């Protein structure tokens, strides 16, 4: 069995992409576009690096062993149509920790779409702002695998928000190894925010699409073997983004923010509408339940991107997450053809709690706090178990200068009391989704916040990127260590933590 330290000695590599000079920071074609999501902290990197022995300010904790992985958009070729940040090719960034040292690695997810474009030498795929083209892709748009990432069966698995093809990546090199398959399924596609239960060793997954069945839900084991899958009855195509998972139940989302299939068929554009007069519906299904066992609960209209955690309290099922009262804000005059995209990306949401009584059918819901936050994570050892703490990203509103989606601070919540602790990244410094990193050997029997919180930030004044490590019990004390990264890391979406013991068991 190879020691974890060997993963930090992986041979250093630097590859430059795009036919530009060796140490160029980005793709030269971005300067042809007046699109804020192609510039500054959003500008794609053109290098794939693998660098060990990173410089550390402060001291990395001796019991911080494992790796932080973050997915996100990094367009390789000049867009064929208007660019949306959801269109960028998936790129994984990894920071590996062992014995007080750190290594950085980043790689593109070699999706079928990206490989086809590399062969042609230019973009051949339409993006989410259309027009859709089903002759190029069975999804009508480019499956970028740029949204989420989890660890299963010895590999990382990258996922797309639109329930695309999942891909396996080598956990040490981040090289793409092919599709992630669950044998026995009729359809490969898998949605972002399928969840791994570390306590049971199960993967809870879901998928959705524009044709019946509009949603499926299932369970697999950590060897990548499907154990269970059922169709979920929905009234039409939906765009759910997450699920809730307790010990015995899964909560499926039917949200009143979706598209009209007739418009898509006739005009080849997916036009999303927020149906303000429709309730949110949450479908509670036993973990290994059948489709007819789903019990639906109606809640106030809105939209949910991300849940924090779920658990059972007697007859009650509790779900914490972030709720948006309006997922499609008004577009601002003067923003031209990008106005709707810019409005949609200006995410407005706050920390929220839903409670469902499984005996009486009663629903209770309400704000935990009104601060604009999202990209919320909890201690992964507590998935499905009662928890108090969640770690969110502070997102400035438009009136606070939030013209584009950006993360300006880390917020820790005590969801029992509503108390919050905040650490601002600093003027012009923007963060990534933060993950909770358990101490080496920790279990769910240990204190919930006796571990670390890890994130990436980029300083737009110097374009230096850092990996920050916080003591989870003292966010306001600031990072206990800062790891200087060897290149600028662009804005990204979701992240995960892989424990050192899981890395060692595979390498």
UniProtKB/TrEMBL annotation:
Fe cation binds at residues 193, 241, 306, 494. Pfam families: RPE65. Keywords: Dioxygenase, Iron, Metal-binding, Oxidoreductase. InterPro entries: Carotenoid_Oase (IPR004294). Binds 1 Fe(2+) ion per subunit. GO terms for biological process: carotene catabolic process. Its cofactor is Fe(2+). It comes from the Bacteria. GO terms for molecular function: carotenoid dioxygenase activity; metal ion binding. Belongs to the carotenoid oxygenase family. This is Dioxygenase.
């Amino acid at each position: 069995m190879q020691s974890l330290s060997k993963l930090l000695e992986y041979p250093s590599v630097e590859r430059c992409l795009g036919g530009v000079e060796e140490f160029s920071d980005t793709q030269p074609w971005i300067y042809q576009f007046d699109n804020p999501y192609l510039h500054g902290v959003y500008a794609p990197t053109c290098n794939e690096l693998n660098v060990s022995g990173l410089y550390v300010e402060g001291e990395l904790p001796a019991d911080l062993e494992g790796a932080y992985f973050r997915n996100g958009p990094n367009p390789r070729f000049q867009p064929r149509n208007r660019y949306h940040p959801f269109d960028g090719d998936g790129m994984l960034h990894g920071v590996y920790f062992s014995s007080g040292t750190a290594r950085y690695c980043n790689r593109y997810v070699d999706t079928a779409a990206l490989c086809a474009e590399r062969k042609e030498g230019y973009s051949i795929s339409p993006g989410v702002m259309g027009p859709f083209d089903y002759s190029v892709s069975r999804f009508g748009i480019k499956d970028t695998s740029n949204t989420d990432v989890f660890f299963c069966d010895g590999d990382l698995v990258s996922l797309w928000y639109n329930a695309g093809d999942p891909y396996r990546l080598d956990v040490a090199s981040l090289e793409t190894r092919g599709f992630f398959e669950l044998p026995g399924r009729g359809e490969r596609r898998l949605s972002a925010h399928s969840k791994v239960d570390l306590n049971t060793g199960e993967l809870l997954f879901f998928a959705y699409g524009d044709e019946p069945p509009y949603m499926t839900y299932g369970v697999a084991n950590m060897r990548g073997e499907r154990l269970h899958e059922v169709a979920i009855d929905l009234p039409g195509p939906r765009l759910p983004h997450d699920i809730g998972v307790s010990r015995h139940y899964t909560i499926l989302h039917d949200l009143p923010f979706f598209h009209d299939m007739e418009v898509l068929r006739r005009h080849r554009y997916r036009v999303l509408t927020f149906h303000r007069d429709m309730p949110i519906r949450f479908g509670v299904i036993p973990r290994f339940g059948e489709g007819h066992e789903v019990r639906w609960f109606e809640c106030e209209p809105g939209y949910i991107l991300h849940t924090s955690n779920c658990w059972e309290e007697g007859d009650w099922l509790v779900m914490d997450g972030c709720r948006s009262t309006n997922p499609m804000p008004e577009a601002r005059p003067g923003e031209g053809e990008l106005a709707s995209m810019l409005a949609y990306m200006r995410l407005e949401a706050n920390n929220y709690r839903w409670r469902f009584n499984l005996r009486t059918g009663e629903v209770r819901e309400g704000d935990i706090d009104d601060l604009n936050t999202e990209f919320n994570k909890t201690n992964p050892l507590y998935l499905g178990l009662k928890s108090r703490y969640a770690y969110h990203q502070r997102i400035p509103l438009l009136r606070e200068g939030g013209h584009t989606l950006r993360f300006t601070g880390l917020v820790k919540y005590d969801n029992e009391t509503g108390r919050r602790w905040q650490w601002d990244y600093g003027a012009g410094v923007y963060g990534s989704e933060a993950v909770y990193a358990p101490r080496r050997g920790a279990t769910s029997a240990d204190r919930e916040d006796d571990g670390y919180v890890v994130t990436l930030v980029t300083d737009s004044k110097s374009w230096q990127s850092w990996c920050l490590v916080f003591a989870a019990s003292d966010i306001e004390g600031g990072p206990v260590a800062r790891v200087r990264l060897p290149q600028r890391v662009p804005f990204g979406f979701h992240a995960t933590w892989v424990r050192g013991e899981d890395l060692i068991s595979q390498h």
